[in-house]
Every structure is written in structure tokens, then in C-alpha cells.
From TrEMBL:
It comes from the Bacteria. It comes from Nocardiopsis flavescens. PANTHER family: DNA 3'-5' HELICASE (PTHR11070:SF45), UVRD / RECB / PCRA DNA HELICASE FAMILY MEMBER (PTHR11070). Pfam families: AAA_19, UvrD_C. Keywords: ATP-binding, Helicase, Hydrolase, Isomerase, Nucleotide-binding. This is DNA 3'-5' helicase.
Amino acid sequence: MSALAIAPTFLSDFTRLTPDVQLSTLAVMRAYQAGERPVLETVADAADPRVRIVGIAPDWSGVIVPAPAGGEPDDGPGDDTDPDGRYRLLTVLPREEALRFARRLLPASPEIVPLGPGAPADPLPSGPPELAGALRAPFRQWQVTLHPDQHRITEAHHNGAVQITGGPGTGKTVIALHRAARLAERDAAAHPGDHRESVLLTTYNRALAQSLSDRLDQLLPDPGVRARVRVATIDSLARSVVQANGGIPPRLIGKDDLARRWRAVALADGLPFSGRFLVDEWEQVILAKGLELLPDYIRCERSGRVQHLAPEHRRQVWETVRRYVGAMRVEGLWSYPQLAAEAARVLGRGGPLFRHAVVDEAQDLHPAQWRMVRAAVPEGPDDLFIVGDPHQRVSDNRVSLASLGINVRGRGQRLRVSYRITQEILDWSMPILGRRAALGMDDDADTLAGYRSLLRGTAPVVRGCADRAEELAALGDWVRVWLEAGVDPAEIAVAGRNHWVVRGIAKELAARGVPTAPLEETAVPGAVRVGTLHRLKGQEFRCVALVGVSDHLLPPKAAIESADGDQVALEHAFQQERTLLFTACTRARDALYVSHVGRASRLVTEGR
């Protein structure tokens, strides 16, 4: 009896089809089960001669291949002349896309074969016609390639601030890059005699800032126009403003180090609050809201802070924080949000620095950093161009742009079509986030509903290993296969959660004669990039391998302990780790490899 089964990955594809195409797909499957054999078309030049196309709806087709019967090995070709043929439906796509997809399927496989040892083949994904040339171009050129439909976003004129949000691979960073270049060109034309830096392109971390600077050099070959754009991290901007004002380089302290310091003094003072709670209260309430007086703190709404504080407890927290911050001032120490708040005050007294600002990875900026950006650029046409994704937030920061005087209502756009990573990588990565909606920067819940990719490629590979030696050996094999398939070493990234894992990665690759360079070293040719998951943020590679995604390493013990028993902080810590892993997975355009020792991390297994 004829049968038409579905591939394990098909259900996620099915949910993205329009209702009429879904109904047509179900009708074809019912007809098949009833013995009515729809016409199956062969596919010219297909890698697997057994692959077939079946009509689903006008201009839509399904891709099917023979499937083993009853779980037994497939004994024959099972083509469409076999009355007992069993098939598996892989996907339903517009007809031309279905044909391209079918031609790429490897022989003797009921599904897309993941790239791995013993199967050296270029993992280049397939995509729509408008991207075909760009996908085949050198990756350096791809990194500045903007989807044709998105040029209007970078070219548009606006009366004020604009916000662009979207999931991974929707081209947000490339849009930010092109927007900065376009603003510089306009500024050069409008102010030919004024050669100062007029456009700020800022982001969250140094590796991404360096990558943006390198790519901007490609887009702006004219040195005079390029000199109008300052590319800087948000923290380096704050440091430069404060140092220029006071003449002394500020000494910065991270949140975890600060929490440890405050934990010790809180215990010595006999306070009922943990060091982490006090730091979070200072940064996420007092500094975030710009509170300078006790009565304002007593009255304020502590949004996102579950632990209730009575007025008398708020008074105690306020006095404690004031005392601890005073001690920091004596030592000359600054936290990053505190430094941004000071920079905003300096700019408020001295005036703006730029005419325009483009902010990438905007979801991770603290409210104090937004106040600094607002003070650095005067309000006016095309003043702020804000790009981010709340689902990739790796900080505790929660921001309402409207409350900071940045109005983007009516000038925002949500990108829902990805073209920089494959659908297969998206399908595997999205469950890592969990089911919670993210809080957007305009006070609205942000979801990934309707999010899909234009690219199709190999499924991510997850490798479980018995011990660390086996895991590193398997990684070395996998990287070697990518290299033998023709992937440039600089287009491959390998990352781990901590520096201990990263050192093991670097040693293994060095022992195999594979040159490596840190993830932030964007200009080093011919070397595989190696670093921590955090360093992957905002970057893009053809192939990405994540090592040590094990339950005893991710989430790390230190992240859990840093919560100090604070349930709110613990919940934030877990969500940050989910977001970090999700973001790292979606740095791969073509292929993703994930390995672990023992049990895989619960962040991977939960929700699947």
C-alpha cells in the first residue's frame, strides 16, 4: 500500500505555510493514503535521482524522497512506478525554490545530510534568486551585502528617532552599517567645509565595534567621508567623555566584582540584603531611573524587581548604597552604568558631539547609556537610528525609550524574514529561548511569531562525547572537514562558555596545524577564530562550532552563585544564559556544530 510519511523537520515548515497551502498539503497526503497517486515529477540534475516533486497548490510543490518501510533499511529505489512505494515529505516550498532544494539533496538520504567527517561538501546554503550571487561571492563581500528589499530602510528620511527590530539573521547590523555610511555621505554633501566626526556608530562590545569599523572601510573608500563616522563601543564613548572632562582615566569595575565587594561589606554591616541585590537595586532602579533624592526612590515603581521593599527598607537600602558608592569614589572606581550617567551629565553641560547616531545591539544598553546617547546627539531629523532584538538581550537592562525622551512611535519596523542564517539553524536554536515573550524597548511585548528564513541548508549537528579528549578530537575532525570542503579558516568560529574551554580548543587546533586567532581579531587572515560565547555576539561566520555545551558547564556554576540566593537574580541569570547560547548558535550562516560531554545542557534539552 502506498504511504506518504513526513520528515521530522516538516512540522515546523508546515506551521509557516499559509492556510490555503496547508489545506492543499493535507489533501495531497490524504489522497496518497487513499491510494490515489498524484503525479510525481523527476528533478533534472538532482544529486539524488530518486528525489521527486509533487504539486501541492498553484505554484507550490512538495519535495519527497523514498523512506524505509517499517524502520527497515531501504532495499530499493522505490520510485513512483512502485505501487508499494513509501515516501517521506521533506518540505513544501514555492515551485522554483522546491526545485533548487531538491537538486541539492545528497543521494541515499531521506533528509538533508548534515556535513561531517566522511562527507566533505561545501555547506553553502540555497536561497532565493536575488541572493544567489551574493551567497557565492567571497564572505567578506557577503558581510556588507544588504537584501534588496532593505535599501529603502537605509535611504529613508525621518523626522526623528527610528527603531528597527528583528530576529537573528534579518540583517539588522548590515542595515546599521549601511545607514551610518549613508548618513556620512549626506553629511559630507550638506557640510563640505565641516570635517568633524558627525556620525556615531556605537554598539555593545569591542569585537563587534572592530568588525563594524572594518566593514565600514569597505563601504566608504573615501577617507574624508569615512572620517566623519566614529565607531566606538558605548563604554569607550563614556570613558572618553569623562576622561576629557576630568583629565584622569576612570578605573572601571564589572558588576560581578562589584557584587562580591558589596557582599563582603554587607555581611560585615549585618545587613539583610545580598551584595548582588544591592548592586542590582543601584543599577537597575536608582541609576536606571536617574534618582538623586531619597523621596523619589521611596515613591518610584521598581519595575521588574519582584522583591517588595517597604519605605523603611528603601531608606536603609538608599543609605547603604550611598555609603558604598562613596567608598568607590574615594578609590576612583566606576561601574559602567555609573560612568555613562556621568558622561550624560558632562554632555548636558557642554553640548552634543554628533549630528546623528546609529546604535546597534540596542537591547543591551542601560538607561544611563541611553541618556548619554541622547545628550550626545541633538533632537532633530534622522537623529537616532536604533537597531536591536530584545530576544538577544544578554544583560539585565530593561529600557523604555519613551520614558527617556526618545520617541519612536510610528517610526519603527519589525523584520521577520531572515536571510543570513538557514531555516534549519533557526528551527534548532529557537527552543533554547523558552516560550517567554521578550520585553521590547517601546514597552511592548516582542515575539518571534512569523519569523522565518529564506535560506535552506544542512541541519545542525549535536555530538555527545564520553570525555573531554573525545570532544576535542571530534571538534578537530569537524573543523578539518570544513576546511577540506573549501571554507576559508577566517569564516569558521569555535567558541566555549569559559576561557578554560577556549584554551583546550586552541591547543587541539594548534596540534592539528590549524592556525587560530581570537574572535575579536577581525583582520587576521587564514586563521580559525576562537573565543568565548560572549565574543561571538553580533558577529557572523559561515560555520560555527560550540564546544562544552554540557550540563555541568552551562549554565556555569559561577552565574548561579552570583545570584546570591536572590530568586529574581537567579531567574535573570538563567535567561541570560539562554539568550547567550541562542545568540551564539545564530552566528552561523551555513553550518552549526554543537558538542557536549555527558548530558547536554538543560538549556538545549528543555522545551524540545
